[in-house]
Amino acid sequence: MLEVTGARLHIIDAATTVDGGSLLLDGAVVAEIGTPRPEGVETLDADGCVVTPGLVNAHHHLLQSAFRTLPGTRGVPMADWLPAMAMAYTAAGIDASLLSASAAVGVAEGLLDGVTTVADHHLNWPLEGSIDATVAIARATAEATARLGGRLALVRGSARDEPGRAAASAEAIVGDLVPGAVGGITANGMLQVAVGPAGVHSDSAETFAAFAEVAARHHLRRRTQANEQVDTAIAVERYGRRPLELLEAWGWLAPDVTIAHCCDVHDDEIRALAAAAVTVTHAPGCDVSMGWGIAPVHRMLDAGITVGLGTSGGGSNDAGHLLADARLAMQVSALVGPQLPARTLLDAATAGGAVGLGRPELGHLRPGAAADLCVWDVSGVADAGVADPVAGLLWANPGRRPRHVVVAGRVVVRDGRLVGADEADLVAVLRRRMGAAAA
After folding, report:
1. What is the pLDDT of residue 238?
2. How many angstroms separate the CA atoms of 174 and 194, rounded?
3. What is the pLDDT of residue 230?
4. End-to-end CA gap in the chain
5. Burial readout 400-423 (b: 16 or more C-beta within 10 A, e: otherwise)
6. Pairing of strands 9-12, 2-5
7. What are phi and psi of 428, to 5 degrees?
8. Within 10 A of 131 (CB to CB), how many other CB atoms are there?
9. Which DSSP string do the residues of 272-321 spell out, in sequence order?
10. CB-side neighbour CA atoms (13 Å) of 325
11. Distance CA 222, CA 156 (A)
12. Is residue 109 exposed (0-12), middle (13-18) or buried (19+ Cβ within 10 Å)?
């Protein structure tokens, strides 16, 4: 057992606020909250801290952790951004060694910023050669995450892939990574497989149908991206219909589907999303910097839509700091409606993302929950004068790192440092891999 305790301790999730007391973990699950200290139990010091559920980064592209601030990718239209990124990918060569290095850096960054679960929507695969090469990429991502102790939802995505090859690759990845697993989730809950095209702007109805068949066969979650301005423009030009209209026609407005971005949505489209019980992932750190706009999160929440939070990839956001993006989401929300409260965004960054993954055990700290949590120190000068320590998590000190991070009852970040790896080593591996590609 592990007890998280401290005289000045605030335990927070969407349904629970406990000041003082402790949080008792029994193996990989939460046993009790607010209980007195038991005897003979390992303790984790959380005095002067706020404890939250582990953050769920519901939309990332871990590959892009190796491609940040590239020339030609900042402050440019999507039509220029895509070829700049594609040129960099081609020069580096997308293979298992690259994903091993980039995923390790991205997952480590997330853990050090409080992200215990990351959904990696991997879109860029070898378009020729054996299916085994795509399996090796997926396996490298999963193994890098496992070494660091994080949870991974690996989304076998596509971006102009041939539909049959994409579906065959997804089948092979399921068979290799999660064979026989219910819903594509391993028994310990540390690895999940999902599927989903990049969006109607890049993938055909045939690709959506092929992935839907794989998802139905293995009971996988489905994920895609829609209604950024560029996505809307391409859909209207190519099909004469808006993206969500196409997704509905193609069978992709359903309770097992999560859609990222949704910046450019009308009220009737919000009603359609709510009626279909689709979940949405807000990604302001990408959307704002790419000039796509601000998703009307307040209107979506009012309609009954569950909203999670994601950073998207390093090629657009340049960072994987989900709490900082929650702060950004809170700030920019006032430009498109009433300002969202800090607790609402904290809920999106935890429980909202978990719902989109179909993971009811994640994103909260009630007894029986997965033992994933972050211990945030709020005792320093950056939080001095803060009346509400929960609101202060977002409003004050946007670059904060947690003191400790626990995943499945295991301490993976202690006193601000990774337990399972050395940051400098991870950086060195990625630099060598990218340097070798440049040579």
Report:
1. 96
2. 9
3. 86
4. 50
5. bbbbbbbbbbbbbbeeeebeebee
6. unpaired
7. -65, -40
8. 16
9. HHHHTT-EEEE-HHHHTTTT-----HHHHHHTT--EEE----TTTTS---
10. 37
11. 10
12. buried
CA 15 – CA 179 distance, rounded (Å): 35
Q: In the Cβ-directed half-sphere of 224, how many Cα atoms lie within 13 Å?
A: 34
- Size of the chain in residues: 439
Chain position carrying tokens 């069978």: 251
**Beta strand 29-33 pairing with 151-158:** unpaired
**Maximal CA-CA distance, the chain:** 67
307-309 β-sheet, strand order: 55-60, 115-122, 151-158, 191-197, 222-226, 257-261, 279-282, 307-309
Residues 6+ apart with CB under 8 A from 286: 261, 292, 311, 312, 313, 316, 317
Tokens 């340097």: give the residue: 435
Chunked mean pLDDT (size 10), the chain, 439 residues:
86 81 92 78 91 97 97 90 94 97 98 98 93 98 98 97 97 97 97 98 97 98 94 95 98 98 97 98 95 96 98 95 97 96 97 98 96 96 94 92 97 97 98 81
Look up residue 182 and give its two tokens.
């219910």
Please state the φ and ψ torsions of residue 116, each to the nearest 5 degrees: -100, -20
Nearest residue to 117 via CA among 408, 420, 409, 430 = 408
| Non-local CB neighbours of 13 within 8 Å, separated by 6+ positions | 52, 53, 350, 351, 363, 364, 365, 366
The encoded tokens of residue 342 equal: 């800090």
For the chain, list the domains and their CATH numbers: 2-53+363-418 (2.30.40.10), 55-356 (3.20.20.140)
Q: Using alpha carbons, select from 397, 406, 352 the residue that is nearest to residue 375.
A: 406
